């Protein structure tokens, strides 16, 4: 067995993979983690990336970076309307991406290119890869349960669940338990048809690909995975959680404020609520002030990430009343960007108030930190429903943000029995994460299958 493994490792040494992340922080991180995982298995890695939100090559001296023009005009290079941005990128990058693939296929001779791995949102790349006879694998950075909601979009439209009507918000989506109508993705965008088109492209071109890779694990999403096998009869690899393969790796292109850790070092175990809404979400000034007062009134220590321009119309924390931070007397620490994985793993953290982006949700599961869920858009509402109703490892702030509700939610999670039960359940999931990554575990085995599969793709390419 060891001999077979060694011979496969030698084969991988002569093999290059092209990876193309979508240039949004929540998508770049998992793609770069995947790149590191595959590099550790012996493959050479070329990262193709846009100029917009380009990754920092100095953090990855072991990869080759290849920049392509994205054609975005000044006003277009913005995450204010993500559907608009992704739709534009899928049109504007076709030519430059194709040209760069042709060039790379000609140039990279000593280590043949086995396949292309792109984010599922880069749906245009399937046609380009097909035209060059290059197998394309897809990385989907959300979880499987949410992808199935995207897959069900035609049905949701046909049955009238979407567009969402205010009168139906609390009704169940009987075809997709435990979801309610209000959990379905409705993304604010200039033209809703663009959203439907993007989802159709993403789903159909994923189905046409040579395989789907997930930053999730079998034990967490067993039912969704069975359904995925039925609906997507292509090779499927659940090899997550990616970031747990390495200790101390940060792929963040933003500067992480390390003062968080020394601040946490002075706090009691399980006492601090960590608050962060990821890299894209925005809130308004009234919501910002409710959060500030809710946290302050809870009297629990809090570490709060306020990204620059998180609050619409403000640069940073100017809307806070004068002297707010001083009056907290050391119970609150506000930063622009935190080393989130280190923060989550710190013994002082007792809970995470999150927008339920998939990376944040998964990181919370990996570190055994129960959640307060305040989903804002996209996949976040579905993730929050699974956190509260299926895995039962968090509580939902479903109504308009209000300081009294926030204060109660923080206390419930950090000090009350309810929160302790959630902590126990999430600790048992954390143990499952550790098992799935060990030899013989589901993610470990799936990664072995993936690396063997890529080696099978390579001869297809060279004929
Ligand atoms: C986006 C979408 O909004 C999300 O719904 C989707 O699931 C993935 O893409 P984002 O909103 O940024 O992502 O959220 P999330 O998926 O949680 O990713 C944020 C990442 O930034 C996490 O890996 C988190 O650890 C990191 N982060 C966040 C930091 O490193 N520091 C911070 O201060 C905040």
Automatic annotation (TrEMBL):
InterPro entries in the record, alphabetically? UDP_glucos_trans (IPR002213)
- Is-annotated flag, keyword Transferase? yes
On the tree of life, the source organism's domain of life is Eukaryota
Keywords, alphabetical: Transferase
Q: Which family does it belong to?
A: Belongs to the UDP-glycosyltransferase family.
The protein, known as: Anthocyanidin 3-O-glucosyltransferase
Q: Which organism is it from?
A: Hevea brasiliensis
* Taxonomic lineage of the native organism: Eukaryota, Viridiplantae, Streptophyta, Embryophyta, Tracheophyta
